[in-house]
Amino acid sequence: MSDMREITYKEAVREAMCEEMRRDETVYFMGEDIGAYCGAFGVSKGMLEEFGPSRVIETPISETAFVGAGVGSAITGMRPIVELMFSDFMSVCYDQIINQAAKMHFMFAGKVSVPMVIRTPAGGGTGAAAQHSQSLEQMYLHIPGLKVVVPSTPYDAKGLLKTAIRDNNTVMFLEQKRLYNTKGMVPDGDYTIPFGVADTKREGRDVSIITYGRTVQMSLQAAEKLEKEGISVEVIDLRTLVPLDKEAIIATARKTRRVVIVHEAVKYGGFGGELVSTIVDSDAFYYLDAPIKRVGALYCPVPFNPVLETNTFPTPETIEAAVREVL
Amino acid sequence: MATEICMPKNGMDMTEGTIVRWLKNEGDHVEKNEPVMEIETDKITMEAESPAEGVLLKKLFEDGAVVPVLQVVAYVGEAGEAIPDAKTAPAPQAQEAPAPAARPSAVPAPDSPVAATPYARKLAKDRGVDLHDIPPGGRHGEIRGADVEAYLDAAPRATPLARAMAAGLGIDLKGVAGSGCRGKITSADLHPAPAAEQAAAVDAVVAELEAVIQRRKMTGMRKVIAQRMFSSHSEIPPVTQNIKIDVTDLLDLREKINLGREKGDKVSVNDMIVKAVAIVIGEQERFRMTLEGTEYVLHSRINVGVAVGLDEGLLVPVVRDVDKKGLLQLARETKELSRRARDGKLTPDDMGDGRITVSNIGMFGTHSFTPIINQPEAAIVGVCAAEDELVLADGQVTARKRMMICLTYDHRILNGTEACMFESRLKQLLENPVSILL
Fold this sequence. Notes:
Chain A is α/β, with parallel strands linked by helices.
């Protein structure tokens, strides 16, 4: 593999897009303000210069129109990467995603496919208030026909985005806007990360934290702190929610017998409930030695006030407290 | 307080038992260790004893009931004594003291639900301990895996039967050395501890049990035979074909050959059959094949195994290169191999690398059987008794000696036609036996 160097999460996303666009001319990029302005978070810096306006297409402010255009071009053989400025805006174009992109391959008997990636910044922690801070992955993973990816590191962001672009299904690629400027070691050239393979971030003996996205780092911080007291915590980063690495989930539950599930999305009705079911539906049930605890956002719209906002989301401290509860 | 009689757990894999019949009625007096019921597991039928002396107060199940192991099935105590209501009544302590029990680990009624984690339940079930006995350590009063482990570490590891016996005999298990798996105390370990008369009582129960069934360990040879027969029978699609052969002339010829020969140096019918079989497999190469994965391996040496029955099993020494040996030499070598087999003096060189086995049980009058192939051979020839039969020949009824030959073959290597060709050629040789002398 090529040389490793330290780059940011958003640079990793950009590298994946550029490398794939150089490799395959059917790949193109479309979204609001992605050209001269380089996107709301600067992810697409330099892409208009390199690929020109026919492959880096700036769209009007109409999610339904340009996601629909993405679906249409995908079924004719293109591989669009569509950026939604905030994942919260997905609700504007649900019909295109849920009733069109997710269903066409099934309803047309496999004769068409929709190899589209919808990239979008998700999550909070930026003081962007209730309409720009949500984690809505639960809405997509409930729709058969969509794959759902939530990378937590620059390395995973690049490798998983390349896999997403090469996948023949519609992939919801949920970037963590609060992680855009975090750094990590990323290979210089081409590599992909398969979907459906969880990453064991840290081996442990006493409790397993199953998590993904922004709360992976928080979980690792909590684990490090608990380690000093001799409490050994395993941290599993799911990386892709559809497909889901059920084997890894069941194995870690059997191993440590105590599980804490952490996600930034609202706890009530969140994906954590499905993960609990995955465990208790399996033979890992008989190995559980404590109730499974979930840590997620409070059941309220994300407040604008930064102090309140911080307190609605999981923190290393609330994760640590949940671990102590199951010990 | 009434003593519980539980469904015993005999062996790790026993999960439930059937009460075949009660040996005592409610109100009957029972001695400690006296059998009170006959139980049946999926393996054996046995009697279960009362852990205490007293009156059989209550039977909770009828004859024929299937009950999970370690569940209470009856109570023994003093006449008129109250027993805990299995379903509804609170624990006896609670009846005496209506105020909430002060002890956090108050013993709940035998059937009341116990708060325990799934892992603690699994552990308790696997190790045969009752969750009711374990003090909970969880913050909500639940029993956790660690609590079960702590309980097991503190209490000597013992089988449920040994626990029940020890309780009944008043023996402290801490003083008993365990001889079971990883030092577990079994009922057998309780013999040295009790006083002589108690030991005698235990012995009496054991003797009674042993009169019903006996268990014998497999010998090494039986183990090997069992394993090889099982593997042959489960891996090979076998077919057995029978053919009836007129051996009148064969028996005449044998008599002529043996005329004037010493008793220990005679040729047997079996030797003649082995020779004929060797001729046929020399001619028909598929009978010399073995199957390795997806390849057939053709062997050229004509080695024939001869099954020798022993008191404690069966051995198959192999006579080498039968095609190159005359009948007399074959007879002598076979005799010597059989003698060594009976004396337990066969070497590994005397066995293996056979192409086919001849198994003869004709001396017992057997009419027909389905021999099992000695892997990796392709077939086995079963030889039955020569029987007197009336046969119609040229319109005349004549008395003849006829014998059944039962060929079992591996249908992955051989087909029916090939087996028929084998049998008809063998029949031709044995009915015209001079040809096997050539």
